[in-house]
Amino acid sequence: MLGLLAVALLVGLLASLGIGPFGISPARVGQILLAFDGTDAIERHVVLTVRLPRVLTALMAGAGLALCGAALQGVFRNPLVGPHIIGVSTGAAFGGTLAILMSESRGLLLTLAFLFGMLALLMVYALNALVARRNMLVLVLAGVVVSGFFGALVSLAQYLADAEEKLPRIVFWLLGSFATADYGKLALMLSALAPGAFLLLLLRWRINILSLGDEEARALGIRAEPTRWLVLTLIGLIVSAQVAVSGVIGWIGLVIPHLARMLVGPDHRVLLPGAMLAGGLFMVLVDDVARTLSQSEIPLGILTALIGAPVFALVFLRAAGPERGHG
């Protein structure tokens, strides 16, 4: 099944590079990517400069969010948690909002979004340590508190923003988009996703054990708390970079792990790479819809919610079906 997902992702990538107002056939896209002579200069520019960084950024953002969601659901033993539960995305959202208020610098936006995302994670660490270090419920509540705090700051920033210039930019960025993706943003996303995903994939068997419970983990020689915090740190790194690059994109980290689990099973050794492939494919396809469905680009956050909510409802109803039958 992983092979089929990989093939589907490759086909989706090639198709996406040709989709847009300036349509290019898959065969021409292949020739351009393989640097064949005789390709049109305009087509090369569209594929290599405009669409390729955007499609690859969408791929990595979707793969990263789905990976984070699958890992979180494993370490928390809860299928209803996602990357936003630890407050990182809201912290990064405030950092980006603050940068937009301060200047027009894209570099400042990326920097502050990333830094405030990691600051939110540190605040969750601190609250959890002050209250109960080994209580996962307290950890979740700490994430809710930090998320609420930064959410209030985002609302305050929107209230104070210039309604003619700053506010529309803030709102559009918060709703998520790859419209401004370039190789610089791609590099930032890759710099976080590559080490984060590599280490999370190395921890697959530990996440498998944690999903059985802390007692079982200790019996098998796994220190549950340090492993859980390492996973959360890696997730914070990936999610901060994603929000910095493309704004807040919901539902991917919650829904895609469930779909991947239906396709490849619950074993995290297969589930994590499966979630990455499925998340990358889903995000690329959603971005295709966002930039082609209407003349003006549709924010990704709207589309992922419109698609993700009913899909999650179907998954939930399917999972609850046997229980309803026994009831």
Number of discrete domains: 1
What's the helix count?
14
CATH class: Mainly Alpha
CATH superfamily descriptor: ABC transporter involved in vitamin B12 uptake, BtuC
Residue stretches low in confidence (pLDDT < 50, at least 5 long) are none
- How many strands in all? 0
The helix/strand class is mainly alpha
Work out the radius of gyration: 20 Å
Structure overview:
With 327 residues, this protein is mostly helical. It has one domain (58-311): ABC transporter involved in vitamin B12 uptake, BtuC (Orthogonal Bundle), CATH 1.10.3470. The protein has 14 helices and no strands. The chain is globular. The mean pLDDT is 89.
Question: How does the SSE layout of this entry go?
Answer:
Blueprint: H1 2-18, H2 26-33, H3 41-75, H4 88-102, H5 106-131, H6 136-160, H7 166-175, H8 183-202, H9 204-210, H10 214-219, H11 224-246, H12 252-264, H13 268-292, H14 300-326
Helix pairs in contact: 1-2, 1-3, 1-13, 3-8, 3-11, 3-12, 3-13, 4-5, 4-6, 4-7, 4-11, 5-6, 5-11, 8-11, 12-13, 12-14
Which key phrases capture this entry?
single chain; 327 residues; mainly alpha; ABC transporter involved in vitamin B12 uptake, BtuC; 14 helices; globular
Gist of the model:
With 327 residues, this protein is an all-alpha fold. It contains 14 helices and no strands. Helix 8 runs antiparallel to helix 11 (224-246).
